[in-house]
Amino acid sequence: MADEPQGRPGPEKVVERYLSAVRAQTAAAPSSYPPPQSKRYPGSPRTPLPWPGPGAPPLTGAGLDRISALLLGYGPRRVETLTSAGLSALTGTPSSGPVFARALPAWFTLRWSVPSGGAYYPGEIYLAWTGSGELPAGVYHYDHVHHCLELLRAGNPVAELDRLLGPTTNPADRSRRSALLLACRPWKNSGKYRAFGYQLGTIDTGVLLGQLLTSTQTGTVHLAPDPRAADDLLGLDGLVESVYAVIELPTTATVETGTQPDLTPPPDPVGLANDRLALADADPSAVALHRAISTGGDAAVRADPHPPDNGAAAPPPPTTAPVRLPEVTPLDLVGAAAGRVSASDLAPGLRLGQLADILAYAGGHRATTTALDTLSRHPLHPSLWCLVNQVDGLPPGAYRYDPRQHLLWPSAGTGPQAPTTNVVDRRMATAGVTVFVVAGGDPPMADLTPAAFRQLHLLTGAVVQLTALACQAVGAAARPIGGFSARDAAEQLGLPHGHTPVVQLLLGAPKPRAGLLAVALTEGTSDG
């Protein structure tokens, strides 16, 4: 993909006004309207997807098994809707184990492969499918509560995908184009997080993007789909729910010549009552930012698969000698997803080799798929910085990770003390290392166009998920946190001007049963 001019913001300075509103907000009060709910399409034909796990046939990587493997792990799911094999796959516990006896009605017992701010899960997944023997061509919605596909529109969607993504790169084989569409419900968590909820929801969608791109070896990612074409294809109200990213999937289906898509509008969904009420009370700057992107008039920032390796975007290295990191260990990030969790507690004991592997896979030095490698070369791809407190084999201090050479450069920061956060207990912030995902610096985040601002946070979310998966694979524990002092973090890291920390991940050694969570939620219920 070729670079396009990034464009400077208009006179309204939409992004700058939004960031000012986030900095000015105080602690959000609980919302008075109903809690968020899962989206469903009652009455739509449903195709159950196969489960792996004890007693179930292994997934083959073809047909419905391939789709199931891509989507499995996006939670949460209610215990009473799961088979024993499904719950066993989620928790990693044998179906005869004590976890089943502890599962209470209306509670979730799960391992989360996709973390979410406040467990609100603003992401929705759709499938535009060319057709196969097991699944007819059509447009589907993924019901993550019941792990099934809901048919929204029958017929081959290839013409709509061409409108959404542009002509296929292989026009002689047009029948082989399918896609996963990642949508976000940006107001689903705004009752809890107010203006910051919009930023957080975009990161959550990026986390989901990182998970899906880890699981597919042949996908092509699009971070700037045509918003109007996406709304038309899925029947969305773009102000309430919008497509943020698309993963193009090659398929082996053969489509009859002249097959016309079904243009019947999709059925009406349920589950969006909270979103519409929250939108009415949403921060005006967040709504303005969303509208600016949804109009489709903003210039997209596209990735160059082979950008010049001139290091111009990286700050100059300090005079202090870098830390040469151990050789990267081959890791199975796909297998790590089944046990991926947000840790409830951390302990000392993180080793330099573990940190080196985590940074390599999260920072782009070791990409496991072609799509992830392309993302790592995106002009807006964030960098990784560390505040080291207790890592065996590494002196405490502030460091910048260099993914090209797999080095840690000591920075001019003020030391290892992590910024104070009111979100987690202090013992978590002082164990191991705090990894910051940093945006910047030309242009600074406040000067980005609205579409570039969204892409930056999608990329940030993907880095968050890769960090978490690598942590799971090396036996470390991780906790993503959005609530911290960006000014304090920048000072302690020694960030150059224009660089902004977007999210932090607290890393350490896991404590016993760090990942098994039982959380009372309302996911899985319907408006009815």
Automatic annotation (TrEMBL):
Residues 25-58, 298-322 are annotated as: Disordered. CDD domains: McbC_SagB-like_oxidoreductase (cd02142). Residues 45-57 have a biased composition (Pro residues). InterPro entries: Bacteriocin_Proc_Enz, Nitroreductase-like. It comes from the Bacteria. This is Nitroreductase family protein. It comes from Polymorphospora lycopeni.
